[in-house]
Amino acid sequence: MSLLTAVLSLVSGGIVGFALGMSGGGGSILAVPLLLYVVGVPDPHVAIGTSALAVAVNAFANVIGHWRSGTVKWPCATVFAGAGAVGAAIGSTLGKLTNGSVLLVLFALAMFAVGAAMLRPRMASGDPTVRLDARIAGRLAGIGALTGGISGFFGIGGGFLIVPGIMLGSGMPILNAIGSSLVSVGVFGITTAANYALAGLVAWQIAGVFILGGVGGGILGMRTAIALAARKAVLSRLFAGMVLVVATYMLVRSAFALLH
Q1: Which residue, 34, 67, 74, is CA-closest to 50?
Q2: Who's near 37: CB < 8 A, 6+ residues apart?
Q3: Distance between CA atoms of 15 and 21, rounded to whole angstroms?
Q4: What is the mean pLDDT of the chain?
């Protein structure tokens, strides 16, 4: 790995970490386009495998803070993540078999969905004392498997889907759903990364530097979010707009590659 590649990987990781720290779920969607168009990873499948690993490590690191603050509902999180791991294994296998250019077109469309989801206000209400029972477990398993499949196919954290999915399946408040979602983001990411790694589709050195940048960017992003708490809605809209712009660029470029 050249010095330039290392610097670009560090900066790109910092951008993703900053976005995650500042806006929460959805920030990791930028990892694949940054790896492709900034770092210069030539293969879309390698970019997805590398992104999945970086997202997983960052999620597992962030879940510690939520665990300590008591916001993680472990029984619900475990059922959702367990079912989602099966979905992620299937989804990532299908992703590896999909033509790279086609995969990027679909990824760009997924980015449009992320951007649109980030523009919608989230409901914060729910039952903070929710307990796992057979009915809730069944709903969480079904939603988790579907969400894991989408996450695995695109190699993304899927927090923008996991948070509302956990809320829908269990009825817990958004604060608990965010903390619990990080368990699934990590599990889905490591499942996808392992699947891609078995096919030699993970750039390990780039992933390591990318993760390092993500840690620093995450700290800066969280501090920025706290300092600009009163303008959080504006920041979220700006970030959603950036996601939509990147999605448009990816869609045009990938569609052009398909046609030629």
Answers
A1: 34
A2: 249
A3: 10
A4: 87
Residue whose C-alpha is closest to residue 97's, from 145, 50, 42, 45: 45
Is the per-residue pLDDT at 59 higher than 60?
yes
Contacts of 246 (CB under 8 A, 6+ apart): 30, 33, 111
CA-CA distances (angstroms) from residue 98 to 4, 185, 190?
30, 22, 20
Q: What is the pLDDT of residues 180-203, one digit of tens each?
A: 888 998 999 999 999 999 999 999
At residue 229, does pLDDT exceed 70?
A: no
What values do phi and psi take at 156, rounded to 5? -110, 160
Q: Contact 34/16 with Cβ under 8 angstroms?
A: yes
The closest of 155, 151, 109, 114 to 251, measured between CA atoms, is: 109
DSSP per-residue letters across 124-145: ----TT----HHHHHHHHHHHH
Amino acid at 145: A
Helices (runs of H) and strands (runs of E) counted in the chain: 10, 0
- Segment 238-255 shows an average pLDDT of 86
**For the whole model, what pTM was predicted?**
0.86
Q: Distance of CA 232 to CAs 221, 222, 237, Å?
A: 12, 11, 9
